[in-house]
Model the fold of this input.
Amino acid sequence: MKSPLEYVRRNILALKPYSTARDEFKGGDISVWIDANESPYQNGVNRYPDPHQKALKERISRLFDVAADSIFLGGAGSDEAIDITFRVFCRPAIDNAIAITPSYGVYRVAADINDVELREVCLNADFSLPVEAILSAADHHTKLVWICSPNNPTGNAFPKEQILELAERFDGMVVVDEAYADFSAKGSLLQEISSHPNIIVLRTFSKAWGMAGLRAGMAFAVPEIIAFYNRVKYPYNMSVLIQKELLRRIEEGTRNHIEEIIAEREKLAKGLREATCVREVLPSDANFLLVRVTDPDAVYDFLIEKGVIVRNRSTMPLCEGALRVTIGTPEENELTLRYFKEFGL
Ligand SMILES: *Cc1c(COP(=O)(O)O)cnc(C)c1O
Done:
């Protein structure tokens, strides 16, 4: 098995990271902190945050049963991990990456920003993973394959064995974005990173954990790879307030309403199938439904008039007629269902 370090850009392998004021300090009984040009007046945020987020990583390590040095934390959500992944592995204008389509839009934006060609491989018509097509889209400059599972916007998770097979056959890194894994019964690849060192798993606190406003995302991989994420990130990429609040909320155990959302998802799907404008409700492993309707633009506008906003995905590949509907509270879902029915044909 190849070492994943072979896929890291040479300039990143050689990178001497910025050394923060506190990195050089090794224990001792310090009572006067005058090394970092901070204000000495305590106000809760006058000190720089821990650049290594040690306490938080310890807690997350227990939470996900993954070693602390296998965790990268991003203070701009997992979008930060997506950007850093391109920067660690892909040389601008030389290397390329593969993503499935339709999928999450940030892979494309991050690729464009980094001047990395993104080759989009369409899912099969039944939304299954086109493993052979992905492998044949790769050449010797392909460093990354992006797999979103459960996939946004199609809602389905891919079988674990298929992603593992892809990782075994692909000569590069496979990034598995598991933003919605908490809503899926199909399992996570988190425990496979040590046996498959070319897999990177992305998770977020934005969805099932109910903290989209906080901005906290995670990348998990073997420690050799995570070490480079930590060198490339901005030194203080997660503020004192986020670290503190996240630790507090994890301790509180606030993984919000997952069973309730799954139950509501199934209930809403069943209800929507009875609405005359609905042609199909796709099965979902996430906290949203992809709903094919007769006239997506008209239904979208009608819902807006009623004060309900959904995501119109009807111009995406394989998404003809499709609106993406996030599961809300039971009251919100009832309203949404009522308006879909009210629209008529
Ligand atoms: C919502 C979402 C994310 C989360 O992004 P954050 O920056 O962590 O809020 C990541 N990937 C996918 C596919 C998503 O839909």
In short: The chain is about 35% helix and 15% strand. Residues 4-252 form a domain with the Aspartate Aminotransferase; domain 2 fold (CATH 3.40.640.10). The pocket of pyridoxal-5'-phosphate is lined by residues 77-79, 104, 148, 152, 177, 179, 204, 206-207, 212, 217 (CB under 6 Å).
